[in-house]
Amino acid sequence: MQRFWTILLVLFLGVTLAGCAASKKKGGTVEVEDATIDGSGADVTTGASASGVDSDDATAGEIIIIDQNDSDVDDPLGQRVVYFDFDSSNLTPEAQRVVEAHAQYLTSNPGMAVVLEGHADERGTREYNLALGERRSNAVSQIFQAMGVAPDAIRTISYGEERPISMGQDESAWSLNRRVEILY
């Protein structure tokens, strides 16, 4: 019986020490390279990769914020994200306008290719959300093709709930995650 308690104590101590060793350090610095965030009214780009910025103006790892002109806000080509209603792959009239503008751009520039990333909020199973993200990216792809974009210039992918923009647990956060991102 004493051997049982000794083994149990050793296992408990081993698990406790292993748990302590796996704790992550907080703090420090994180260096991001060539990251661009779109859709918020401003582009945030690191390093000297921002368009129109000389390498003399920025050092590696420095964050450069480029404000878009107010005229770009109303420009559908300036919008690279279209949003969807809950559990839907139907485009809103505003999303339809943005998608059609991108389709016209692609038909006038036949050498361009586009990636359509479909996303969903976290509600629903992982499999369902992957399928919903695929339906959303396919809905945008169908409009592109109907307006004359070559099918081989379009690549669709679904991330489902795996790449949320907002981590909140309310409708305002979920509505930001129900989207298709248009990437050139």
Question: Could you explain the architecture of this structure?
Answer:
- With 184 residues, the protein is α+β, with helices and mostly antiparallel strands.
- The protein has 2 domains: 32-74, no CATH class; 75-183, OmpA-like domain (60s Ribosomal Protein L30, Chain: A, 2-Layer Sandwich), CATH 3.30.1330.
- It is 37% helix and 18% strand.
- It has 5 helices and 7 strands, in the order αβββαβαβαβαβ.
- It has helices at residues 2-21, 70-73, 93-108, 126-146, 171-177; strands at residues 36-37, 42-46, 63-67, 81-83, 114-119, 154-160, 179-183.
- The strands form 2 sheets. Strands 4-7-5-6 form a 4-stranded mixed β-sheet. A 3-stranded antiparallel β-sheet has the order 1-2-3, with no helix packed on it.
- α4 (126-146) links the parallel β5 and β6 (154-160).
- α3 packs across α4.
- The chain is elongated.
- The model is unreliable at 22-71 (pLDDT under 50).
Keywords:
elongated; alpha+beta; 184 residues; 2 domains; 60s Ribosomal Protein L30, Chain: A
Question: Quick one: CATH superfamily of the largest domain?
Answer: OmpA-like domain
CATH class category of the largest domain: Alpha Beta
The CATH architecture of the largest domain: 2-Layer Sandwich
The helix tally amounts to 5
Count of the domains? 2
H/E element sequence:
HEEEHEHEHEHE
Structural class: alpha+beta
Helical content stands at 25-40%
Q: What's the Cα radius of gyration?
A: 23 Å
Largest sheet: 4 strands, mixed
| Strand ordering within the main sheet | 4-7-5-6
The mean pLDDT is 77
Q: Return residue spans where pLDDT drops below 50 for at least 5 consecutive residues.
A: 22-71
Through-space gap between termini? 69 Å
Strand content: 15-25%
DSSP strand tally: 7
Shape: elongated
As for the CATH topology of the largest domain, it is 60s Ribosomal Protein L30, Chain: A
